[in-house]
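ok trying again, last paste got cut off:
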Amino acid sequence: MQIKIERIYTKPIDTDGYRILVDRLWPRGISKANAQLDLWLKEVGPSTELRKWFNHDTEKYPEFKQRYIAELQQNDSYPQLEQTVAKQLKTTNVILLFGAKDTEHNQAVVLKECLEGQIG
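nice, full thing came through this time. structure:
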């Protein structure tokens, strides 16, 4: 089993796994029924301040990643994510969902790296 990341707007959606939305804000234009989520853990998303500072500027990504990891280390919800992912990986893939257009520079990429470092 593996951890995957997917943009929530991708069609067709990947339903081969436990689907977790890791955005703090609900993605525009996506109904809760169409999202087919198993869990929305908005608390693990970057803080509003960090998200606004980053503003999806790829030049800021290395610093965003460092700041976000520091936030995760202080985040009471991150252990819940680790436990959920570890439990689900025993029987299925885990898909971390995000709304950003940039598929390489976003919090789901950072989360996947962190989780694989802890679990894998």
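cool. The helical segments are 32-35, 48-54, 61-74, 78-89, 107-119. The chain has one domain: 3-119.
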